Each structure stands twice: as C-alpha cells, then as structure tokens.
C-alpha cells in the first residue's frame, strides 16, 4: 500500500509484492495499516489539527474584537482583531479541506488496498479458499470491514488533533479566568458522562431496530426470489400478510429508537443549557465586579459550545478502535490463510500417462476416455484427484446475527478453531504422496503451475464470469477469433451467440445469470475447449443439455479433441458412444474397460447407462 | 443452420488486442507543471468526472433491461399520497412541536442579550441577576421537554411513513404481471427491494423528519434575529446567497455522484463474489492474474467516483463552514458601527452572535438532508416503476366448459422483429402425456409458456374449455394449468404457509396433510416441532433440497390443476435426487394431462405422444412407435442414443 505509480494513474497505488500485512494480532494489524499509509496519516492529522485549532481560537478573537470595538470604541483595534478572525476562519476552512482530502485518501488506500489483497489471497488459495472461509465472510471482509478500518483510523487522527485543540482552548480559558475556565473544563466531561446512561438503551434500541430491519429486508428478498412461485402458483395474500406484520414491528421499534434519540437530544440541550446558565451567572458576577470584560464572557459562551466537539471525538475514538479490532480479527483470519502445499518443482511431460491408485484407472495420452460410475460421487472424486483438488466441502456459513455478546464471541472462537483444524488436515493431506502419478511421478513432486496448465478439470459448477460473450469464451484475451468460433461450434453454442444482441460483445451478467442452465454449460464447455490443454477432464459436460444438442456436441467434441487426452465423466450414451474407451467404476474401482460396443452387454453398464433401453427391448 | 449468423457477424463484433480501459481519458494532472496548467487540468478532470457521473445516473434512470423507472414527479406524488389522513395529522403535529421547541430555544439567547445590556448599563443588582438566570434555566428546561416531544413526533411520522411505503412496495411487487416475472431474472427486482428500499428508508426515517426540524429551526431563528435587530440580520443575506448558489451546485451533482459511487461498489462486490465463488474455476483455468487485474481496474474506477464526491463534499464543507462563520465577522463589524451610531446595543450583538452559532447545526444538516431526500426520491422512482408494467392478461367472466387444452396458430417472439414460434397448432387430449423434444433454441420452452398461460401469443390463442387462458383470472388459471418451474424455493413461514399457496383461503389442514402424504413428505413434516406450524427458512428449520422439492410438489397437488407443463431443463427434478423423488412426482402427475418439455429421450419415450419442434415449428408428432416408423429426426436421434 505504499505509494508507487502503476497503471495509468497513481491512485489507488499498487500493492508492492513484498509487503505482507502483520497478521499476528488485531492491534498489530491496525498499526501495520497505519505504517503502510506512509505520509498520509501524519498529513491527515495535521489537516485535522489545522481545522480544529483555529476553531479553538475563534471565540477568543471574537471576544477581543467586541471588547475593542464595542466596549472601548477602538475601531482600528477592532478591525485588526476582525482581520485576524478572518484569517483564522480561512485557515480553518483550508484545514477542513485538507483533513477531509487526506482522510478520504487514507480511507480509500486502506479500502482498495485490502480489497485487492482479498482478491490476491482468493486467487492464491484457489479452491482451498472455499474449504476454509464461507463466501459471505470473504465478501463482508472485502466490503464492510475494509470500511471499518477507514472509520477507525480517521477517528484516530481526529482524536490526536482534538487533544491538541483541547489543550489550547484550556490554556486560553484558564489564562483569561481561572475559575470560569475550571468550571468549563470540569463540566464538559461531566456533561458527556451525564448522557452516558441513556446511550446504552439507545444502542440497544438501535441494534433491535437494525436487526428487525434486516429481517424485514430478508423477508422482502424472500418474496422477490420466490416471486415466480407466488405469481405462478399463488399465495400472495399469505405472504403479503406475513410481510405486513413486520414493517409494523419495525415501526414500533423505530419509534422506540426515535424516543431514545429524542431523550439523548433533550438531555444534551438540558445539560449544555445549564452549563451556559452557570457561565452566565458566574460571568455576570465577575462583570459586575469588573474582573471580566464583556468580550471575555462572550468568549466563554463560545468555549462551552466548542469543547463538546473534542470530547465527543475522544468517546467516538474509543468505540471505533474496538470496532476496528473486531474487523481486524476477521481480516487477518482471511489474509493469514495459506495453501497447504509447497511446490514439488518438477514439470510435467507434454503428454503424460496418468494413473490413479485409488480407482486403478489409467488415462492414456491422446485418447478420449469415458468414466461411468454407479455412484456419481465416485467419478466426481476421481476427477478431483486427477486435477489435484481437495474435496469440495464448504465450511458452515456464519449465522450469528441472532447471538449477542459473549455467546457470539464464543461462536466466533469455535469457528476459528474449526478452521484451524481443517487447515491442519489439509496440510497433512498435502504432505503425503497424492496417489495419482503422471508418467510414474507422484503429483506431490510436480510443479503446481505446470500441472494446472497441462491438466484442466472442468467441473459441473464451473463459474461463468460477467463480461461479454467474447470474454466468457476467451477470458485470457489471447486467442484467435477462428479458434473461438470453432470452440463455440463444438459446444453447439451458436444459438447463444445469435440470441445475444451484439454478437461477441453481447452482455453476460454476473455468474451468467439470465442464461439457462444448458446455455451456461455449453459456454463453460466452449471456454474449456478454447483453453486447449493436453489433458481435459470434463465432469458431466452436457447434463443440462437436450438430447438433440447433446448428440451434436458428442460428435463434434470427439473430432475436436482428436489426438489429445480427454476424460469425460458422464452416463450419457450419446457421449459414451464417441469415446475411444470407457472405464466402468463400481464402488470407486475400475471393474471393466472397453468401447461402448464392448461394454454394451455388461449388466452393470446397462443398469447405469441404458435406462429406458430395457423397456423397449422387453 | 445457425452458423450463417455467426460467420456473418463474428468478424465485425470480435475485438482483438487488449481490452479498452473502462477509465476515461484526460484524468491526468501533470506533476511539476505550472500552477495555471495544473489548475486547468484539475478543472478538466472534475468536468470529466461530472460527465461520467451524469452518464451513470442516466443509465440508472433508464435501464436498458429490467423493470421500468418512474419519474421523480410520480415518486413525489406517491410519497405525497402516503401523507394523507392520519399521517397528515402527524405531520401537522410534528411541525407544531418543532416550532414550539425552536421558539423555546430562541428565548435564552434573547434574555442573555438583555442581561448583558443591563449589566453593562449598570442597571442590574445581584437579586435581579438571580431572577433572570432562574428564568433562563426554566426556559431551557422547557426547551428540553419540547425538543423531546418534537423529535419523538418527527420519528413517529418518519417510521409511520416508512412502514406504509414498504407495505405498498411489496403490494406492487406481488401484483407484477406473470409474464414479466417469468421473463426477467430476479436480480433487478432484488436490487430494488433491498438497496432502493434501504435508501428510501433513510429518506423517510431520517431525512424527512430532519428536514422539518432544520427548516423550522432556520426559519424561526431568522425571524428571531430580525426581531432582535434587523440590521444585524443583514450578514445572513450573504449566508443565504452562498448557501443557495453553493447548495444548488452541490445538490445538482451529488445524487449522480453518489449513485456512481455505489454503482462502483457493487461492481467491486460482484467481481469479488465471482472470484471467491469461482475460486476453483479461476485456479483451473489460470485466470488469477486476470481477476486481479479486474479488481485493480474496478478499484481504480471506484477511486475516481470516490474522489469526485470528495471534491463535491470539500466544496460543501468549505461553503457551510464559511457561511456560518463569516456572518459572525459581519455582526461584529456592523455591531461596532451600530454601537457607535447608537442603533445596536451590546446585548443585541451578543444575541445575534449566539443565534448565528445556533444556526451551524441546522445549516450543516439541511444540505445533507436534501441530499438523502434526492437519493430517496430516485430510489422510490425505481421502486414504483415496477408498477408501470402493463399486464397482458384480460380477466373476464367466462368459465371454462371443460378441460380440453388447445393452441391454434401460435406465433410469439421476445423481440419485436423476430418470432421464436411460427404458427404452431397443438391439441392436448385430456389426461394424455405429450412430450416436446427439439434442439436448444427451437422454441420448445416458449411453447410451454404459452400453453401454461404465462405469455400472450402474438397471434392465435390457447384455450381451455373454449376460454382463452389469457382471459382467465390468475386464481382460476392456477387450478386449470400450471407451469412446474425450477424453483423449489422455501419461503420464510410455516409449513402450511408454504404448501397452501394456490388455495390459501380455502385449503383445510386435512387437505394439506393429504398433499404432503401424497409426496411422501408427511413423515418428516409430522416429526418437525409444531408439525404444520413449524417455521421454515432463515435461521429456523432448514430443509434439504429433496425435502424442498417435495414441498414444491405438494403445492401443486393442493393447486390441483388438470394440466401440468413440465420443463425438464428448468424443472424441479434435480438429477441428484431424481430417483428419490420419482414416487412423489408420480403422485402429482397421476390423473393429469402433462406437457413435458423433455431433454432426456427416455422421458419422451414414456409419453403418449411426442412432438418434435425445430426452428419454431412442430415438424413431427405422434407416438414413439409412429415416429420411429416415420424415420425422421426423432428416429435418427433415438437410434444414436440407444445403440
């Protein structure tokens, strides 16, 4: 996050490759963050000081000017004071701009920097990420926690500046009138403390309102997601009724919240008003005695108003720092996660023979191998092993919105322990030989990057990224148009091209939403084909595609992959017919191998593949 | 058959070379150049950012796809409507209480001023001082109490308005025409119902009450200043001018700026979500560097948006800061002069100075309040825009005379110039199973939607018992024909709520139980705590995908339509649990006519008749045996599949 020009603009700056966040503890992380901003934090604090310190002088100058001009009728002196006052106001306005500008810079450096780090971490972890951290938590780190750091550190700088201005104002007051100064200095913190008791019910009311509001939002989301059913099958009245009860609940809680806010405001008016009254009383007595000038009294009115602001800043800072630590804990849990394996270092041969020990399946180069399994999980696990992927198990999503205080903390700790346990398991698993060999060498001795480049596994739930049709098929942006066209045709996806306005530039929405399952599947296939790896493992590539199209894909696929290694996990006879050979798995072990015609009469094979054949044969 | 389109336009629409940057040109400010050149570059950059913000805003107002957006006037009208009746009284009460509170707040500075006059005039004794101070203290106590009442009544009004608006929005959503619900994805609607309702909520519960508070306070303070001394009020003219001009500049840009900003954040979020959820795909295809490059550009774009609104805020802050502090200088200057001339007393000057410092809060707030009100109105316009969709359904009085479903000369297209179906006739015999097969894009799913009465065909009509399905009220249509969709969504609510849907007012518990028994779900439902009254969804009981599918099937048994349209591609039969659900599904299909849009040939094989659709026409129709004898497309495919 050091300033370092990159790309077209220097902002936001790039993350230096060698800088690593300090993830040893939440507070160390926050201090690391402060250091990483370089000159921005001091500049922001300076801006805050030049915004607040002039404000501390304004009441004093105002009093001077009134004394000189009005009480003593000394116009030139009054004009002098007024000139100074103008200067101080101008400095304050300038300081305000500086403070805000640097605060935003700091805020954004932190936010964007961490968002980029989250992305880098996700890319580095790959599929391991989905085993360790639920998606929702990564998104909440990337969107809200990164915001929290901005708020915490802004209030850090603000508090430092507030401390300076507080000291300055105190000195000015005490030198004018020690008694009045002491009254103000003692009374202001007392006033703020006086409003503390009502802050607790206020926070509770806020929390209750927020939680009901969010359950209201999820209720509305529920209706919107299920709208097809509600409009198609019915049930509008029931759910409109269920929903309507909720806004009324929020309304009641909102009024409770509004009441507490009104109490807080009334108390603050009462207390600051009473301080004013005390100042008036004491000040007027001194006026009568002649120990205080009228201008000085007016200054004190100003201080009484001014001093609440630094005080509030201190209280705010205490709160924000705690919130910042909570956010830091979540963030370092994510940024501190690493892949379980070290690189083996040996590159793969150009056309490797793969052998899986667990199933006994051998994948021969240049052939198209079909995998048929009684239990679809067995063949999916085989595909995972061939690609060196840990099994897909997602951690429990975080659902502690209902918990509070200690129980929430406890749940969080349990979650972290659970995660650490899984990390140990993964490390242990990765340390052993993998159980799949390429040209006789175990995967654990191979270079990961080279493995990923040579062997590509296209899973059933592969993600289609938003962008254009062109970037969906050729995300790398390195392929020739003719190759992309060919991939599209092999995947029989020309109709998608036609249905999108704008051809290759037609929009693909987030996660390919707006396309049907079959359309998504065919684009995923086209993308994998364009990647053109030595070994391509396709898991159920046509499960959502109709038989007509599937037949077309099967013929073109075999043709297209001629001479390269292709593994197809499927139970579709249309695809299997085109395979050079088929491995039949029962209980995760290969029990037979042969062409479609050779296996045609195998009872196990018929049971799995030829559903419907028996009916017509009977 | 589709290759021609590809070969015709492929070269023209393919972009080679690196993708163009999404950042506009000309944002650079040269380092080390002369002050004037730098200033010009800053101005140019601000202009470009304003331009981009306006474009983003215009796109948000006029979305290319998704639901329409209402005009701001309609949104204001909608909110105005909600302020009728009881809420009009609440509004009056809130204004009155705020006026009273503001009035009380103005007394103390006034009394202070008089006090100062009397002290400097030497007309005050200790006892007089005590009385005045006691009076001021009393006024402050009254002000605190009135402020409490004023803030509370404003909050009541705000939350009341919000609850009403929320209910109305959901009512609008639940009235959405069926055809549109099926056509547009839930994405746009979800954004509106979450983020737009959120913005509307801030406007209703925070901005609107605070607008009343601030405007009343500012107005009352100005009146009090004039009463105190009209000459000493003159500096406020400067404030008014600065606030008016500056406020206009800020407010005319802020909405677009903040919309651009929040848009940029949802882009970052969606990129991150894709990277995280698709981490496996990213790893498998070596897309890591590209994903990182994308987030880099997203944050760069967001940085531009953030720095645009920062500039606007800097402008606003300096304006507010100076517009409340400079009049203080004006009051001192005028005071010095007026005191010498004899038309202003020290007390009046004190009072004016105190009034001005009281104005800081409301002046600060009023712009922020207007800002959020603007955003709220934009969001409201998006929310009520949903209501502007035309319904192509024309419910009439006619009652179907039978259960025979017929479609004649059906033509239909999603875009005005291209039809997907070119004159299809289909005749469904009561109780028969008709399978529709054909390649993707042939129009078979569209045919299913027309038959189910989701969309109105461009020409021709679908009738059930001689009544056009589009003339049937939805409640009635649902008991005639139903489209079995892919969504086995479980709603937040009781098991009963989740099942009775189609006959929410008439179905008895016995019927619900019977439906659940029919789909083999009664076993687990009866074991749930509370049985039919068990609460499902979000933090309560959650169902397995198989159970959710059973609930979805039970819904249809309760609806009891005589005809079902089953789209295999989008149907609720997930292959993983298909075997387990076969019995449940069979129970549903029993005794009903079924139109099955089949992907798998065995589904087609089991049907009474099979229709082969190609390029928007039925090219073959007949039983499995007949089609094999015909030796056409179907026979061809069948042989490839089974041999």
Automatic annotation (TrEMBL), chain A:
Start and end residues of each ABC transporter domain: 334-612
> Which superkingdom does the taxonomy of this entry point to?
Bacteria
Give the transmembrane region(s): 29-53, 81-108, 262-282, 294-315
Give the record's membrane topology: Multi-pass membrane protein
Annotated source species: Tessaracoccus oleiagri
Domain ABC transmembrane type-1 spans what residues? 58-323
What protein name is recorded for this chain?
ABC-type multidrug transport system, ATPase and permease component
Example of a GO MF term: ABC-type oligopeptide transporter activity
Q: Which CDD domains match?
A: ABC_6TM_exporters
Instruction: List UniProt keywords, sorted A-Z.
Output: Membrane, Transmembrane, Transmembrane helix
* Localization: Cell membrane
Q: Which InterPro entries match?
A: ABC1_TM_dom (IPR011527), ABC1_TM_sf (IPR036640), ABC_transporter-like_ATP-bd (IPR003439), ABC_transporter-like_CS (IPR017871), P-loop_NTPase (IPR027417), Type_1_exporter (IPR039421)
Q: Which GO terms describe its cellular component?
A: plasma membrane
TrEMBL record, chain B:
Which molecular function term from Gene Ontology is one that the record holds? Answer: ATP hydrolysis activity
**Is-annotated flag, keyword Ribonucleoprotein?**
no
Q: Main localisation, per the record?
A: membrane
Task: Check the record and name the PROSITE patterns matching this protein.
Answer: ABC_TM1F, ABC_TRANSPORTER_2
The ABC transporter domain, residue ranges: 405-640
Query: What is this entry's stated membrane topology?
Result: Multi-pass membrane protein
Q: Which residues form a coiled coil?
A: none
The residue ranges crossing the membrane are 89-112, 132-150, 206-226, 232-251
Q: Does the keyword Coiled coil apply?
A: no
One of the record's GO cellular component terms:
plasma membrane
Alphabetically sorted, this entry's keywords are: ATP-binding, Cell inner membrane, Cell membrane, Membrane, Nucleotide-binding, Transmembrane, Transmembrane helix, Transport
Tell me the compartments it is located in. Answer: Cell membrane
UniProt-recorded name of the protein: ABC-type multidrug transport system, ATPase and permease component
Lineage of the species this protein comes from: Bacteria, Bacillati, Actinomycetota, Actinomycetes, Propionibacteriales
């Amino acid at each position: 996050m050091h300033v370092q020009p990159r790309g077209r603009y220097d902002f936001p700056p790039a993350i230096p490759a060698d800088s690593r966040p300090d993830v040893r503890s939440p507070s160390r992380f926050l201090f690391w963050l402060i250091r990483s901003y370089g000159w921005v934090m001091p500049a922001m604090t300076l801006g805050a000081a030049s915004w607040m310190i002039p404000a501390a002088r304004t009441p004093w100058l105002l009093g001077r000017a009134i004394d000189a001009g009005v009480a003593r009728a000394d116009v030139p002196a009054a004009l002098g004071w007024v000139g100074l006052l103008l200067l101080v106001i101008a400095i304050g306005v300038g300081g305000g701009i500086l403070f805000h500008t640097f605060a935003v810079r700091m805020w954004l450096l932190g936010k964007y920097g961490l968002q980029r780090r989250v992305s880098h971490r996700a890319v580095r972890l790959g599929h391991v990420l989905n085993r360790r951290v639920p998606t929702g938590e990564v998104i909440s780190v990337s969107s809200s926690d990164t915001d929290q750091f901005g708020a915490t550190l802004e209030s850090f700088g603000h508090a430092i500046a507030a401390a300076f201005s507080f000291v300055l104002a105190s000195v000015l007051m005490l030198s004018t009138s020690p008694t009045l100064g002491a009254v103000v200095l003692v009374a202001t913190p007392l006033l703020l403390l006086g409003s503390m008791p009502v802050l607790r019910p206020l926070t509770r009311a806020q929390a209750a309102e927020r939680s009901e509001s969010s359950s209201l939002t999820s209720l509305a989301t529920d209706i919107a997601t299920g709208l097809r059913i509600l409009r198609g099958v019915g049930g509008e009245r029931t759910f409109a009724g269920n929903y309507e009860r909720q806004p009324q609940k929020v309304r009641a809680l909102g009024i409770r919240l509004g009441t507490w806010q009104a109490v807080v405001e009334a108390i603050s008016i009462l207390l600051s008003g009473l301080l004013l009254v005390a100042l008036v009383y004491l000040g007027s007595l001194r006026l009568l005695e002649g120990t205080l000038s009228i201008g000085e009294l007016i200054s004190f009115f100003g201080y009484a108003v001014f001093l609440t602001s630094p005080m509030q800043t201190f209280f705010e800072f205490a709160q924000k720092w705690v919130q910042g630590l909570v956010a830091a804990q979540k963030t370092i849990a994510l940024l501190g996660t690493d892949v379980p394996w070290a690189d083996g270092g040996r590159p793969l041969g150009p056309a490797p023979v793969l052998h899986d020990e667990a199933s006994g399946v051998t994948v021969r180069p240049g052939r198209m191998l079909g995998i048929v399994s009684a239990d679809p999980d067995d063949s999916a696990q085989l595909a995972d092993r061939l690609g060196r992927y840990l099994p897909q198990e997602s951690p429990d999503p975080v659902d502690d919105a209902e918990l509070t205080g200690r129980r929430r903390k406890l749940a969080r700790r349990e979650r972290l322990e659970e995660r650490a346990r899984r990390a140990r398991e993964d490390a242990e698993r990765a340390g052993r030989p993998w159980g799949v060999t390429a040209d006789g060498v175990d995967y654990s001795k191979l270079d990961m990057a080279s493995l990923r480049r040579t062997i590509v596994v296209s899973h059933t739930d592969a993600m289609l990224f938003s962008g254009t049709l062109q970037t969906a098929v050729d995300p790398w942006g390195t392929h020739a148009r003719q190759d992309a066209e060919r991939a599209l045709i092999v995947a029989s996806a020309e109709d998608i091209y036609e249905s999108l306005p704008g051809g290759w530039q037609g929009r693909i929405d987030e996660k390919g939403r707006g396309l049907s399952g079959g359309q998504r599947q065919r684009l995923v296939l086209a993308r994998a084909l364009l990647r053109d790896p030595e070994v391509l493992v396709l898991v159920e590539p046509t499960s959502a595609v109709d038989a007509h199209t599937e037949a077309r894909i099967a013929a073109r696929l075999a043709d297209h992959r001629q001479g390269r290694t292709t593994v197809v996990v499927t139970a579709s006879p249309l695809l299997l017919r085109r395979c050079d050979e088929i491995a039949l798995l029962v209980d995760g072990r290969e029990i037979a191998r042969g062409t479609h015609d050779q296996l045609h009469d195998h009872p196990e094979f018929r049971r799995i593949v030829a559903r419907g054949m028996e009916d017509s044969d009977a | 058959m589709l290759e021609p389109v590809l070969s015709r336009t492929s070269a023209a629409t393919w972009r080679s070379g690196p993708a163009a940057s999404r950042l506009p040109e000309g944002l650079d400010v040269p380092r080390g150049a002369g002050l004037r050149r730098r200033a010009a570059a800053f101005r140019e950059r601000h202009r470009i950012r304003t331009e981009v913000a306006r474009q983003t805003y215009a796109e948000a107002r006029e979305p290319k796809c998704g639901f329409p957006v209402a005009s701001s006037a309609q949104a204001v009208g909608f909110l105005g409507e909600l302020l009728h009746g009881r809420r009009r009284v609440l509004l009056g009460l809130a204004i009155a209480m705020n006026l009273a509170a503001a009035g009380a707040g103005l007394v103390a500075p006034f009394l202070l001023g008089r006090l100062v006059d009397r002290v400097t005039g030497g007309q005050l004794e200790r006892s007089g001082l005590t009385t005045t101070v006691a009076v001021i203290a009393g006024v402050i106590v009254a002000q605190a109490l009135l402020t409490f009442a004023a803030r509370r009544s404003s909050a009541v009004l705000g939350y009341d308005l919000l609850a009403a608006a929320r209910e109305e929005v959901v009512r609008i959503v639940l009235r959405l025409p069926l055809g549109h619900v099926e056509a547009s994805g839930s994405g746009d609607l979800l954004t509106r119902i979450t983020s737009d309702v959120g913005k509307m909520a801030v406007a209703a519960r925070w901005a609107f009450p605070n607008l009343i508070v601030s405007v009343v306070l500012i107005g009352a303070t100005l009146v009090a200043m004039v009463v105190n001394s009209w000459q000493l009020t003159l500096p406020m003219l400067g404030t008014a001018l600065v606030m008016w001009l500056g406020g206009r500049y800020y407010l005319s840009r802020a909405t677009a700026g903040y919309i651009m900003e929040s848009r940029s954040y949802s882009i970052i979020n969606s990129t991150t979500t894709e990277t995280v959820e698709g981490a496996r795909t990213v790893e498998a295809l070596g897309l890591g560097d590209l994903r990182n490059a994308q987030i880099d550009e997203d944050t760069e774009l967001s940085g531009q948006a953030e720095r645009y609104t920062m500039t606007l805020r800097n402008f606003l802050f300096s304006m507010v800061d100076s517009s409340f502090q400079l009049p203080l200088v004006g009051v001192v200057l005028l005071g010095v002069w007026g005191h010498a001339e004899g038309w202003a007393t020290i007390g009046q000057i004190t009072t004016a100075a105190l009034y001005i410092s009281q104005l800081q809060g409301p002046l600060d707030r009023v712009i922020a309040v207007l800002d959020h009100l603007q955003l709220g109105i934009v969001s409201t316009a998006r929310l009520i825009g949903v209501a502007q969709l035309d319904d192509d359904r024309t419910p009439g009085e006619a009652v179907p005379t039978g259960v025979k479903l017929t479609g004649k000369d059906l033509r239909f297209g999603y875009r005005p110039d291209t039809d997907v179906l070119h004159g299809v006739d289909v005749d469904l015999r009561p109780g028969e199973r008709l399978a529709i097969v054909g390649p993707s894009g042939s129009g078979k799913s569209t045919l299913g939607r027309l038959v189910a009465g989701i969309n109105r065909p461009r020409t021709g009509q679908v009738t059930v018992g001689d009544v056009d399905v589009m003339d049937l009220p939805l409640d009635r249509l649902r008991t005639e024909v139903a489209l079995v969709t892919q969504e086995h969504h479980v709603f937040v609510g009781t098991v009963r709520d989740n099942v009775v849907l189609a006959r929410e007012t008439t179905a008895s518990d016995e019927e619900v139980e019977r439906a659940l028994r029919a789909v083999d779900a009664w076993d687990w439902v009866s074991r749930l705590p509370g049985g039919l009254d068990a609460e499902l969804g979000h933090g309560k009981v959650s169902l397995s995908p198989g159970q959710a599918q059973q609930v979805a099937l039970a819904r249809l048994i309760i609806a009891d339509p005589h005809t079902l349209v089953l789209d295999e591609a989008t149907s609720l039969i997930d292959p993983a649990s298909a075997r387990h659900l076969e019995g449940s599904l069979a129970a549903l299909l029993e005794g009903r006519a079924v139109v099955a849009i089949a992907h798998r040939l065995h589904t087609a094989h089991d049907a009474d008749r099979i229709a082969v659709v190609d390029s928007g026409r039925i090219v073959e129709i007949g039983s499995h045996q007949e089609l094999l004898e015909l030796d056409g497309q179907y026979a061809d495919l069948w042989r490839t599949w089974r041999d």
